[in-house]
Predict the structure.
Amino acid sequence: MIPSPPTLPATAAEHALRPPPSPTPIPTAMPAPLPTPLPQPPTLMVQQKPGNGGHPTLADFWEGRARFVLIQKDTGLPMGESDTIVMSNGEFWSYLHASEQSAGTVDQCGNPVPFPGCTVIYRSTDSGHTFTTGDESGQTPVCQFECLQCPCTSEDDHIEQQQYPRVFFDGDRLRLVYEYLGRTMYRQSTAGLTWSRPERIAKTGVWDVWLRPCPPGEAIGKHPYIYEDYECLSGAPPGIYVSEEEVYVFVAAGQNPGGMGCYVGGLEAGGADFRRCEHNPLFKGAAAYGPAAIGPDTNPYFDFRTVSSADVQRIGQGEKARFYMVYEGIRGPSHINPADNQFGLGLARSSTGEIDGPWETYPENPILVDLPGNIGLGHADLVVHEGRTILYTSLDGIVRSRLDLVWRKE
């Protein structure tokens, strides 16, 4: 007799009837998620050539084939001036001067900056339609230039007047000029944020003949409605253009009548190494103040007192290449106002492919706005984005606007 198997508890019997468990899976090692890359800071880039993509240029404007149209009435830029470049990530950086009164500006020591102010950057992330103050976090704008010591001083750091900056990147360095007490100052940067110490361009400034005589074209003549404090001028709101071998700096040359002065130096030249261009001044403004009237009838005399604030583009290739310049013309005070109250925006071009040569002015100057104009009109700002020529200036003396150059319709 075969013995019966032992009786198992119910739970044990159920366990015996279950199929053997599947092997426990061995955990597979999963790669850790990659960290989200931090946004790279924008870098400098050589500005595009005007006219790429079939867009018109200032040459087309000169010939009557193109015109400027208002795109953005209020860009957020200060009404008086700016100089804008496009960065590698598409941001627009606009260099200008601002003070504690105008924008809450502080210097790099943290102290408020008096009017007219120091050089700061306004930024645009919408392709140059609107700009905001401060850095990418929207903080209070801080002066670009580091001071020798704290507190900053006027003599060493020009902290209260780094006016009308103009910039140009040639693929190697960003070069910047600005006005300080009538003198033209020169700085350089590799990234657009940290700068060399200032250097004075040659002997720019204002002076009397007892100090040194006036070179041709730099004398200050008589104005019918203002007394001039000095006898000679070579400086004030500047401009800059860098060619393959040389740096050109443009200044106001003389007054009553005024002219467009020019200095030139090598790519490695220090400020004191710059020399006057052979064709200095490149061109002259109106030879006379004109009638006592004020208004559009006086347009031919819009640049009698001062010619300055150059912004230059090279347009065309080979023997047909020419340089085009927008500039500020000031007629000066009128018989009803003791201070400058007549401003215009002028256009000029070189007669050859050389900057240091003869120039001619646009026959229908001033462009955009008739006299009397406004104090922010002449400090115009040209920038090229994707071949399109953009102009920042003030049309009404209240806000700074954006205008685009477009083809005229037949």
Notes: The first strand starts at residue 66 and ends at 72. Residues 1-19 have pLDDT under 50 and may be disordered.
